[in-house]
């Protein structure tokens, strides 16, 4: 293990602490970590450790960056012929996105090897690459717990989860040391990737004011982020609240999607859902706890129903490699993605111990819902990220604009 004592975070000014304060505080908030009267400057509580050289699926400046090509979209409207929407990556984006991919490895092991296979590349291109319209995309490989490990009774063993997390934390630290240079950053993850980022937030970023001040937002899809009932903060995270406005930063977006209603045996959207891999005793305790799973609709953070902006991968991007998709089921367009404006709506719902994002097609508009080969209890888990991908990328742009405007307004003149 290589331990690094110098960090670009040390160059941060008290300005970023002020940004953090303004992002998290709401009228009436009195939490000492988010109080607008706080003047404590950022500091690093411990050395930043990089365990091993990071293997990147996407990293700006690398040869043949997987997040930089083949990402045009076929637009299929309700009437008329399809059109092509060209993909244009931002030339000098002012922020970064750090993305961790979902459970995809089918290696016959508890944890995947530390290498980028075509499967990892396909899912990163399908989910993360389009964020390059707004940010520099960093997507590390990690020794994730595999599909085999996940399907064991009780889920992956603790040491399998710990190994996966150690890789993600090492890659994050590598990014901080060698690429961040004080730039604002968005955390983006799906499924296991979101689980790892949630743990990174809880164990490293939230306790460290200098790292927390860099955070524009965290998009944690399919990870079941828990909060107390009738609250927007607490539970899994102590400081970072749920996002409620599209111009808010320093907050979290999280949801698990089902078509219409989530069944009583839902794998996701429940504080004691089986997706967490808890043993029976813990599951019973959580079922009786005062926690709920956070649902934030990226198309309508303030609540209510709204039209989704899907960007669904085609065979050009995903082939037959994406999880949960039957062979040959991806659209055959010649572009990397296809979108269906005005065809899907979503709203957050609650029933019993379940909280979920209910996705429904517009009546009479046909049904371009992705084909999945998973049971009803899994819902839209393998499609939910892309069903809201346009909304997520738009949200990142708006949050980053608000963050950077706050930074500019707080910069001393002269």
List the keywords:
414 residues, globular, DUF3089 domain-containing protein, disordered N terminus, alpha/beta, single chain
Query: What letter string, H or E per element, gives the SSE order?
Result: EHEEEEEHEHHEHHEEEEHEEEHEEEHH
* Record field, number of beta strands: 18
> Biggest β-sheet, characterized?
6 strands, mixed
Unreliable stretches, pLDDT < 50, 5 or more residues? 1-45
Please state how the strands of the largest beta sheet are arranged side by side: 3-7-6-8-9-11
Number of helices: 10
Q: What characteristic shape results from the CA principal axes?
A: globular
Number of domains: 1
Tell me roughly what share of residues is in helical segments: 25-40%
* Share in β-strands: 15-25%
Quick take:
The chain is α/β, with parallel strands linked by helices. Helix content is 25%, strand content 18%.
Can you walk me through this structure?
With 414 residues, this protein is an alpha/beta fold. It has one domain. The chain has 10 helices and 18 strands. It has helices spanning 14-24, 118-127, 147-150, 158-180, 192-205, 209-212, 280-287, 315-318, 384-387, 389-410; strands spanning 2-4, 48-50, 56-58, 73-75, 83-85, 96-100, 136-140, 185-190, 215-221, 226-228, 251-255, 257-259, 291-293, 306-307, 312-313, 337-339, 344-351, 354-361. The strands form 5 sheets. It has a 6-stranded mixed beta sheet, with helices on both faces. It has a 4-stranded mixed beta sheet with strand order 5-4-16-15. β6, α2 and β7 (136-140) form a beta-alpha-beta unit. α1 crosses α10 and α4 packs across α5 (192-205). The N and C termini lie far apart (44 Å). Residues 1-45 have low confidence and may be disordered. This is DUF3089 domain-containing protein. Residues 1-25 form the signal peptide. It comes from Frankia nepalensis.
